[in-house]
Specification:
This protein folds into two domains: 28-155 and 269-299, Jelly Rolls, CATH 2.60.120; 158-264, Jelly Rolls (Sandwich), CATH 2.60.120.10. Strand 25 and strand 26 form a beta hairpin. With 327 residues, the chain is mostly beta strands. The radius of gyration is 19 Å and the shape is globular. The protein has two helices and 26 strands. Bound molecules: manganese (II) ion.
Length: 327
Amino acid sequence: MTRLDTDDAVATEGSASCDGPRALLLEAREVPLGGVRAMSVRRALPQRDLPLVGAWCFLDRFGPQVTRMRVEPHPHIGLQTVTWPLEGDVRHRDSVGSDVTVRRGSLNLMTSGAGISHSEYSVGTDAAPLDALQLWVALPESRRHGAPAFEQHDVLPEVALAAADGLAGSATVVLGDFAGASSPASTHTPIVGAEIRVPAGSRVILPLDPAWEHALVGVRGDAAVHAGQDPTALDDAHLLYLGIRRTSVEVSSDTGATLFLLGGEPFEDDIVMWWNFVGRTHEEIVEAREAWEARDARFGRVVDHGDERIPAPPLPAVRLTRRRRRV
Ligand code: MN
């Protein structure tokens, strides 16, 4: 995915860091994406006061909708893109030579390192149902200057989640570590990304690492998260930030629910994020933008694409600054 909006490019400096549990319900923003067929997404991360949850720095839900996705080649730096399809098939091509179909049940993980470019098109010529989560993971200093890579994982660990009431739940460990299982996908910081399923009429227990911060987003169904004095209803238009120092959280559902858990060790750096780039300074972002506009070899060439590409938007008139948590 590419970002066409840059309205949140300029963040205000803050100073607070998270020091304990939170139960902060944050609304996802509707963001229109450009392209041949306009589509819109709900962006749950970054939030103005919450740029990161662990190393997770971006979360879009695109769908459910009927559309023909056509995102032409565009660049990334300093991050991993995590695509977790819910419905519909998308063809992914990139500058490390990948040409694969992204479909339900398969994790698609693209590691930009210092630079990669890719495209995402719907499979077929007609509009079709499409629904997915796309997330970005900020790369730490030790990996962000390295080589680009792409991996696809069709087999991921499934774990059972104990029930406080009703039937046991289940989870797919998409990225990192959760409930004693580890995803085979490459990670570079302590992290978790997991799809959580709560059966109808049940209340299940999600084990959490108290040294990590966490958040939950609703995917489908009715979910109530028991993280504060009162349960918090969580739907697919909200993210619930849970803070740190929790050993577990419980989620109940009347009719059955699917959620996505993201979390990890609080990230080592404040980041500068603009368009499709994650860096540490204004100058790095400017340099990456200029390299993309100059068709520099840093971003390679997406296989089978000719000259199609998304030009970088203009930079804002002010310096890009590091984003800080203010919750
Ligand atoms: Mn992208």
